[in-house]
């Protein structure tokens, strides 16, 4: 176990981040996975007081960490008065509960962390509903693994049957709420469908920006359409799909949409909840897959995006947009490697005129 210690200044709960290298994590570059985990935490406004890096050969079903590591973490939490512990890997409901009790802290995992970022980033009513549904699903899975006290039968009037446990009651309550939220979401989707149908009927060209989170999708949309979508160095800055008219040389070329960014091991609750937003992709004529060439893991990220698109059943004509060509770091996607991804353009959304190769491609591109 290796660790970093930081100086805590304010009077807030002290936070420990636990970055795990488990045998089940198929990521090729563990350092990038760690960096991404730290970026997820900071994107959620979390200041880490302690970070430990743990390599595990096996996982404990009850406590996730094996005995020796668990004791080291317990001692650290006690010594540093830690009150919040976040794991970089998914915890089972049982592990989460056992660790919470043992460490006297709020304990949660990467999935919960991503859900909380999504909760903060959702601005539209539809986005908020989608996140709420995903949160309920996650909560329901936690209840499924809850302990004995939830198994005790509750004798209150109004229960479904005499044998209903508190666990079943809570699950039923969540299901009722999810069903209600889904109804509301469906009504909103109908409005979106009508808008889309109008666009399809008018035969307007639809272009969609997709890609890993933080690659520059919103920055590109803003520069190409003078939109005002929040773009910042935060994971999942954008959740809501924004669609704008796209003019090239003063002529309307079509519409262009920004979409929620992807991430490796994206919690499935979120893919499910965001299916309706991501539906935009299914109707696109051209996808612009934005890739951050300053990221050492960018090729891996292309694979993640391709896999999620495949899972969503989206197979569309695609242009790879290699962005951040201005960055001082060495390009992580060599020219030879880049050539495997065709067609592609190399751009810099932050440089004056840096998007010209992309604009030029779209200028000469027509839908089939
Ligand atoms: N150096 C450099 N930075 C860029 C470029 N384009 C975008 N960025 C920065 O990259 C960060 C992410 O940009 P966004 O446009 O928010 O990225 P996004 O893909 O919309 O991210 P999500 O909405 O979180 O999925 C911001 O800090 C941008 O300023 C570029 O061409 N060069
Ligand atoms: Mg964005």
CATH superfamily of the largest domain: P-loop containing nucleotide triphosphate hydrolases
Strand order of the largest sheet: 7-8-6-9-10-11
Helix content: 40-55%
User: What is the global morphology?
Assistant: globular
How far apart the termini lie comes to 56 Å
Architecture of the largest domain, CATH level 2? 3-Layer(aba) Sandwich
Largest sheet at a glance?
6 strands, mixed
Question: Which hetero compounds are present in the coordinates?
Answer: guanosine-5'-triphosphate, magnesium ion
What is the domain total for the residues?
Answer: 3
CATH class of the largest domain: Alpha Beta
Q: What is the rounded Rg?
A: 23 Å
Strand content: 15-25%
Task: Walk me through what this model shows.
This protein has helices at 30-43, 67-80, 93-103, 110-121, 125-144, 166-201, 217-225, 268-273, 275-282, 298-311, 335-338, 356-364; strands at residues 2-5, 14-21, 50-55, 82-87, 106-109, 206-211, 242-248, 251-258, 286-292, 318-323, 344-346. With 368 residues, the protein is an alpha/beta fold. The protein folds into three domains: 2-117, Rossmann fold (3-Layer(aba) Sandwich), CATH 3.40.50.11060; 122-152 and 163-194; 204-364, Rossmann fold. It has a six-stranded mixed sheet, with helices on both faces. A five-stranded mixed sheet has the order 1-3-2-4-5, sandwiched between helices. The longest helix is centred in the middle third of the chain and has 36 residues, at 166-201. 35% of the residues are buried. Residues 211, 213-219, 231-233, 235-238, 261, 323-324, 326-327, 348-350 line the site of guanosine-5'-triphosphate (GTP).
């Amino acid at each position: 176990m290796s660790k970093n210690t930081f100086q805590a200044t304010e009077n807030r709960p002290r936070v420990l981040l636990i970055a795990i290298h488990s045998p089940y994590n198929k990521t090729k570059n563990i350092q990038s996975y760690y960096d991404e985990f730290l970026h997820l935490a900071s994107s959620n406004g979390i200041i880490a007081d302690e970070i430990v890096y743990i390599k595990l050969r096996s996982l404990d079903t009850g406590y996730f960490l094996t005995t020796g590591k668990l004791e080291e973490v317990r001692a650290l939490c006690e010594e540093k008065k830690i009150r919040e512990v976040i794991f970089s890997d998914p915890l089972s409901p049982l592990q989460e509960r056992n660790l919470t009790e043992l460490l006297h802290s709020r304990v949660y995992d990467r999935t919960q962390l991503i859900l909380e970022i999504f909760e903060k980033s959702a601005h539209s009513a539809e986005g908020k509903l989608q996140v709420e549904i995903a949160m309920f699903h996650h909560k329901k899975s936690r209840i499924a693994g809850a302990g004995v006290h939830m198994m005790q039968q509750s004798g209150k009037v109004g229960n479904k049957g005499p044998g209903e446990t508190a666990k079943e009651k809570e699950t039923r309550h969540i299901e009722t709420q999810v069903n209600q939220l889904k109804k509301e979401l469906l009504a909103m989707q109908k409005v979106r469908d009508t808008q889309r149908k109008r666009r399809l009927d008018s035969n307007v060209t639809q272009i969609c920006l997709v890609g890993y989170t933080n690659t520059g999708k919103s920055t590109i949309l803003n520069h190409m359409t003078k939109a005002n979508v929040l773009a910042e160095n935060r994971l999942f800055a954008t959740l809501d799909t924004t669609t704008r008219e796209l003019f090239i040389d003063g002529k309307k070329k079509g519409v262009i949409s920004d979409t929620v960014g992807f991430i490796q091991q994206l919690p499935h609750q979120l893919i499910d909840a965001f299916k309706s937003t991501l539906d935009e992709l299914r109707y696109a004529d051209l996808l612009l897959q934005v890739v951050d060439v300053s990221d050492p893991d960018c090729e891996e990220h292309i694979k993640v995006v391709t896999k999620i698109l495949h899972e969503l059943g989206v197979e569309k004509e695609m242009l790879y947009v290699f962005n951040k060509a201005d960055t001082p770091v060495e390009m992580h996607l060599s020219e030879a490697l880049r050539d495997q991804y065709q067609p592609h353009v190399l751009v810099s959304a932050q440089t004056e005129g840096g998007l010209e190769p992309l604009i030029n491609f779209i200028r000469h591109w027509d839908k089939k």
